Amino acid sequence: MELVAFLGNDSESWGQVNGLINHETWEKIIIIKNSHDISFTLPEHAESLVIETNKPIIELKEEFKEKLKNKLSGFEVSLSIASGNGKEHMALISALLSIPIGLRFVVFTKKGVETIN
Hints:
With 117 residues, the protein is an alpha/beta fold. Helices cover 29% and strands 31% of the residues. It has helices spanning 14-22, 57-68, 86-98; strands spanning 2-7, 28-34, 46-51, 76-80, 102-109, 112-115. The longest helix is centred in the last third of the chain and has 13 residues, at 86-98. 29% of the residues are buried.
């Protein structure tokens, strides 16, 4: 399974993304972050996509779609939106569904990585 995780400016939520990365074996990890200087350390096998999040939501969705459509190889991805804001989440979810690709929302808990849908 591939992991797509959005990394917002809210650094207190980055532990959630780290937990997902470090407690599951992923075929591919794509971390999406905004164009601000974010000092999040990526593992070697992860890919980072930089997105300009101050765009209007429709433009943001199209940027997500264009940058993701050739990066994903399966029919479904595990998605983390524990970080970021509603506009970013809406644009990302809409872009993934437009590719089209199925979504499995994942979260890191005391039990490990769990699916929440």
